[in-house]
Amino acid sequence: MLSILRSLVQEVNSARDLQEALDIIVSRVQKAMGTEVCSVYLLDPASNRYILMATEGLYRKAVGQVSLAYSEGLVGLVGSREEPINLEDAPSHPRYRYFPETGEERFRSFLGVPIIHHRRVLGVLVVQQRESSRCFDEGEEAFLVTVSAQLAGVIAHSEATGAISGLSLTGEEAHDVSFNGVPGAPGVAIGSGVVVYPSADLDVVPEKPTDDIDQELALFGASVKAVREDIERVAKRLASQLRPEEQALFDVYLRMLGDDAMPGEVANKIREGIWAQGALKQVVQQYIRHFEMMDDHYLQERAVDIRDLGRRLLSHLQEGEQKHLNYPERTVLVSEELTPAMLGEVPKGQLIGLVSVKGSSNSHVAILARAMGVPTVMGLVDIPVNQLDGKELIVDGFEGQIFASPSSDLRSYYQAICDEEDELIRGLEVLKDKPCETTDHHRVSLLVNTGLMTDVVRSLSHGAEGIGLYRTEVPFMIKDRFPSEQEQREYYREQLEAFAPSPVTMRTLDIGGDKALTYFPIKEENPFLGWRGIRVTLDHPEIFLVQVRAMLKASEGLNNLQIMLPMISNISEVEESLHLIYRVYHEVREEGYDIHMPKVGVMIEIPAAVYQIRELADRVDFLSVGSNDLTQYLLAVDRNNPRVAQLYHSYHPAVLQALVRIAQDAHSVGKPVGICGELAGDPGGALLLMAMGYDSLSMNAASLPKVKSVIRSVSREWAVQLLEDVLLLDSPHVIKSCVDLALRNAGFGRYLRPGKSAATAVSEAAVS
């Protein structure tokens, strides 16, 4: 069964559209299970009805015609219960619903399993048999459940492809197709999608026609010639080192590239009017499917050779195409994985939004996007990237959502949000030089998180009092090697000078997890629990010592440097780090630099550190909570994973209790404590943190004006009472609602994102 399932998934994955995928499913499952009927019913989001979309065994004329209400019939029962239903005599069941047009009165045995993807019921997969004596056994039921689970993502992807093209399952016009990811940079953008494809990846090559068949044939012919020459050159160079059987592998490649082999089939596809890259993709995937379904292990392995040849040909095709993208005035850049280089290709002033299938809110691109003020959504699952090219898109960087083919109502709704944001920021500019102080004179320092000089410029214009977190890994990320001491010194001096005499807190190199350096790869099965942060730099003191030396020299004459150690989990890491810092300090002083010993602090972002606050505070000058990592470690949720993103919540009672404890323990030994993370930049979160006693809040520059406005308008007594109220609650969603309600009642409703979904807001507006 496993081999059948594997070949089925491979075949469905390479289907050209949803209907082809469904037809493959019903045909292969019917054959594999030896049943008379296999059908797929999909739930249409527009009508909330199940529609018969494909069948093998029922009358074909019923496809697209038969539909059931959400809870109607046995299909509706399977969907509403979200579990399999296995019956020997289906017509005798009280929920049985008969449709004459299907011809299913002949079949009595029934097994239906739900197709569920990310908690959403997509449809129901059904098999039926004529004999009432046959009951599908446990093994068959388990197989069908496995098939359903494996194919749910493929169906969701194909369904989304059709919806983005503007059609619902029923063939009616579709609008407001939404996809959920993770917020990369806040804000809203409305513009045209421009898809940038990674090189030599056949899976993401879009299907599109060509008007110039001769040019496409010439491009493909040149690619075949180039690849053939590459292989002949390598074979010749290695001839003396290879045995005859190994040398024969090159001959296999060359035979595959013969005119009467794969290239001939690609050329025929091009003559049918398909561009060369799309034709290559179709033929290669057909070959791969063919080889992978064979029983012979040697022949199965040839699929790897075909895939490799396909990539080589595509790479040459992409070079030969020399295509320059046209960027519209309002460009939303879309890619499987955005890179900083891609951002740099867009003409200045035309990039308004970013969408990346891969990546996280901590990736270099997300950091750049926040610095540039470009709304960004990352980590999107099941999004058909190649369908977004040229489409009008709405990027909601607050909620981590994108909308394709928006209706005029949805467009107006989001345009209003854009206008309100612009107006709000302009209105808050008057607060730039005013202190962040409550109405009862409680003072809080508002700092910023930075990584680039563009961050600094925006931070100064928003009235930041210093840098609470300078991400020193950014200079490392934009290099193709470790930056030298002098290069680091120049980066650090820029930041220190810009804010002098205000404090600048520099976090030592924090790589690992989801922050990677191309020239220093860290490959681990569980990177967030692996080699990252201080663990890396203590294992490589040559990196740590050079960085600290560059920081200290950069601070000469300014003396506003503070050093912060990331990912501390035990006291020995702090003591070892301090030993190295003191050693460098004395060495730099001996070299003649007139510097002061900087304050040294630790980041509290691992649960173990929460229970060692007093011991840590005895050894350092300050503490700073990294609320993003602390939240994900406390909740065991990767916040960059869209599959579990709904479980990541900064207002979780356990997170708030931990934050209260940290502040109390730090102050009990007389040490200042700050926080840098998304919670500090949220107006409601900032109020709770102030009430807990945090001395400083560090955030992205864009959040600073709103946070300052809210804090200056309330008393600390009011905030403390709000904190006491929410600490009695046990649901993060209820806590968030309670905080939002308090802000609305205090007159800050315009600072909050709408509590309801965009689609709900639009439909309510239409009704009223």
UniProtKB/TrEMBL annotation:
SUPFAM superfamilies documented for this protein = Enzyme I of the PEP:sugar phosphotransferase system HPr-binding (sub)domain, GAF domain-like, Phosphoenolpyruvate/pyruvate domain, Phosphohistidine domain
Catalysed conversion reaction: L-histidyl-[protein] + phosphoenolpyruvate = N(pros)-phospho-L-histidyl-[protein] + pyruvate
The first-level EC class reads transferase
Q: What's its EC?
A: 2.7.3.9
GAF domain location is: 17-165
The record's section on PROSITE patterns has: PEP_ENZYMES_2 (PS00742)
* Cofactor requirement: Mg(2+)
Q: Name one Pfam family in it.
A: PEP-utilizers
Q: State where it is primarily located.
A: cytoplasm
Instruction: Give the UniProt entry's GO cellular component terms.
Output: cytoplasm
Q: Is Transport found in the keyword set?
A: yes
Keyword tags: Cytoplasm, Kinase, Magnesium, Metal-binding, Phosphotransferase system, Pyruvate, Sugar transport, Transferase, Transport
Per its UniProt entry, which superkingdom is the organism in?
Bacteria
Task: Give its localization.
Answer: Cytoplasm
Alphabetically, the GO molecular function entries are: kinase activity; metal ion binding; phosphoenolpyruvate-protein phosphotransferase activity
Write down the InterPro entries for this protein, in alphabetical order.
GAF, GAF-like_dom_sf, PEP-util_enz_mobile_dom, PEP-utilizing_PTS_enzyme, PEP_util_C, PEP_util_CS, Phosphohistidine_dom_sf, PTS_EI-like
Q: Gene3D superfamilies, alphabetically?
A: 3.30.450.40, Phosphoenolpyruvate-binding domains, Phosphohistidine domain, PtsI, HPr-binding domain
Name a single GO biological process: phosphoenolpyruvate-dependent sugar phosphotransferase system
Family membership: Belongs to the PEP-utilizing enzyme family.
> PANTHER family recorded for this chain?
PHOSPHOENOLPYRUVATE-DEPENDENT PHOSPHOTRANSFERASE SYSTEM, PHOSPHOENOLPYRUVATE-PROTEIN PHOSPHOTRANSFERASE
Q: Which NCBIfam families match?
A: PRK11061.1 (NF008283), PTS_I_fam (TIGR01417)
Give the protein name, as stated in the record. phosphoenolpyruvate--protein phosphotransferase
For this protein's source organism, the top of the classification is: Bacteria, Pseudomonadati, Pseudomonadota, Gammaproteobacteria, Pseudomonadales
